[in-house]
Give the backbone structure.
Amino acid sequence: MSGSQDIQTEFIARIKNHQGILHKIGFVYAADDVSREDLYQEMVLQLWKSYPSFKGKSAFSTWMYRVALNTAITLTRKRRIFGGDLMEKHSVFDADQSMNQSEDLKILYQAISTLNNVEKAIIMMWMDDKSYLEIAETFGISVQNVSVKLVRIKKKLGEKIKSLQ
Amino acid sequence: MKTFDLENFKDAWRNEASFSGKNLTDQKITAYLTASTNDLYSFFRKGLLFDIIFKLGLFTAILVLTYIYPGHGILNLIDILSILIIIISIGWQIYVLKKLPDRHESEFKVADTLQRYLHYFYRYYLLSVYIMALSAVLFFIIGSNHYFLIKYNQLPSFDSEDIMVLSAGILLSFGLSFISHQTFSKFRIGQAEQTLEDIREDDIDDLRIAYVNTRRKRWTRFFGFAIIVGVIILIILLLKT
């Protein structure tokens, strides 16, 4: 097996091990199965292209999370000839897809789906216990700015949840 | 009504069953690796490469025309002018292609990535959209020359009505091509601008927006003037036949 094939095999194994990250991002950003498939493809492709820059300074999952999220946020949506964008700005993911979800969790997911792409990413990282510094570095903004945004997003979610309850 | 504390949902989020799926197989991931991308980098790159190849095709068409029908004074003038425009345009498009920001330079900071592409769009790519529209004008002129030479074996003498029709064709081909390129680019770049706005919110620099608008207006005026001058030169050349 050649060196490049070795690297590809190693990459595929790592992606498979951490595919939960892709599922999370796909769940939050894609409105339907078609756009989710498009998003998976784009994230995996960008991860592969960026893979040579992964030097192991951070955990693979952290690096993967950051690149995949960056891809999802900056991905410009395809325009359908009729019927708007392929990935709507405010995607409405299927809150009923998991049978284990409590009613509260379904409401929370519905509320998250009304946020814009940036707010979704921030709340997702916060739910995954990422530090303010990690969130700030992902977006290229200050920690204070993250803090302000989080307060605003939580308030927005609270109001949305109240209206959904 | 019960209170809704987000902290209580962190565990549920992390243990969500939908996220532990294993549906991405080796075969699927391998297929993704060979797929085409839809990112801004590829959008800019594909647009520029397509235009360069199209202009090279036009260049070849002129050479064929000159080889088959040598010695037409007015035709030679139009050919030389077209070749000059094509060479300068291709040179610019290659320059813009080389200025395309590397997708890994930003170390994956979302705001920096978007800022870099937006700067690239307004600083370089927007001018390339005008250059792309010129391809349609050249296509119209070279196509007309081919038609006349094949049908009449020479360029016919045009009356004022013919000149009006040809001028309208030139303006229309430029206008339609420019509008379609511009609209498509704006759709893509508009999404990037919106995302950057969402990230920075109140930090959007009004001065930067004003600067960009001034630049855009300046280039629009310049190209409008260039097209009018071009059409006048063409009319003079055609009247001399």
Summary: The radius of gyration of chain B is 25 Å. Chain B touches chain A through 50 residues (CB under 8 Å). The helical segments of chain B are 10-14, 26-33, 40-68, 73-99, 110-152, 160-200, 206-239.
